[in-house]
Amino acid sequence: MDPRWLGGEIWGRFEGDELVAGCHMGANLVPVQCTREDVATFAERALARVRSTATIVGPHDAVEALWETVSGRWSEPREARWRQPHLQIDGDPLVAPDPEVRPTTPADLIALYPACVDMYTEEVGVSPETSGGKDLYQARVRQLISRGWSFARFDESGRVIFKAEVACSTPYAAQVQGVYVHPDRRGEGLSVGGMAAVVAHVREHIAPTVSLYVNEWNVAARAAYSRVGFTETARLSTLMF
What we know:
By secondary structure, the chain is of the alpha+beta class. The protein is about 35% helix and about 35% strand. It has two domains: about 5-75, no CATH class; about 100-235, 3-Layer(aba) Sandwich (Aminopeptidase).
């Protein structure tokens, strides 16, 4: 696997020919199916490199063990979200999909892009356009549109009032990201019907299981996802530098 196309390296631990644990090392450091011993090994390997990682994200126990190894040698995270519920749904949504939510097209980019920037900035605390990142971020938004992974509802003026994207997918599951409701329209339940529409489309056209993770303190979002039919399956952690 060529690091140029992966945005980093993927490390693995094998038992015979079987891959039993992995770690992606790039802009994100992501331990996958790791024991504490695996995490310690991958952490030491990460420490031997010049750090370019902006985020550590993964299952809570693995991230906690990884941070125990690298803390003191890496700078403190600017924000730590230790117990983020991982949610998934593998059946039809429990509420009616919003019929006005649809896949976006290249013609929607001008209206869609500012909503993507606003959502990212609100969620992460830093604009994706910082340090000359506008072209790369806009290219990512275009890519999601071209794949059919971007969904939105527009009001009468053409403004985005709900949006969400599929971040990644396999034949088995797709992960949703970037769920956003325009601040002027929050509290109306748009995210419930909107997410039901996204779930229905993704399950029909992309993958049978839809997942996402949400901040523990975001009670409104968690309630909306529960109404759609998402259930908690794990806890993740995210450390942002």
